[in-house]
Write the structure tokens for this entry.
Amino acid sequence: MTAKDLIKITLTLVIIYIIGGVILTGVYAKTSPIMFMGDKKDKEAALKKMMPEAEVIEELGTWESHKKKAGYYVAKKGDEEIGYVVESYGKGYSSYIKVLTAVDKNFIVQKIEILKHGETPGLGDEILKEPFKKQFKGKTLEHIKLVKVETKEDIQAITGATISSRAVTEDAVKNGVKLLMERVGGKG
């Protein structure tokens, strides 16, 4: 191979990479707003699902949970505040777990929902199942703690998925409820 052949191959590859980069930039520019609007609609639907009795759910502010931007919201029926929803993250075994937590105006948990995770299928993804999520209903801040034994007062860990269970319970939900109590003036 001569120097001329090497230059020809190099220039061909550079041109191909430039064309590929331009195409990817164009695709991203077209799809980014669509993805943003889709995420926004998904979040609005998830918030409504958390507090279906609310007529309006408004953002109160944002906070950082594991260096990720998260929001907290007030749910209203008429002029009355009926509860709050907080978005938070927990550091799981193999991913950050994105959680929504709904509380009433006394900061008692009404419902949690796992929005995103990358936990191990068959183990960590057990956090998605209703038996685990239902344990949170009616819990106050002091009872949002993970235990490895059968319990009605606290949250029972999923066997084989303690890290994922802890990420949801003590990292995402508990920290989210604490934040709401601090920011919207709740008493513990």
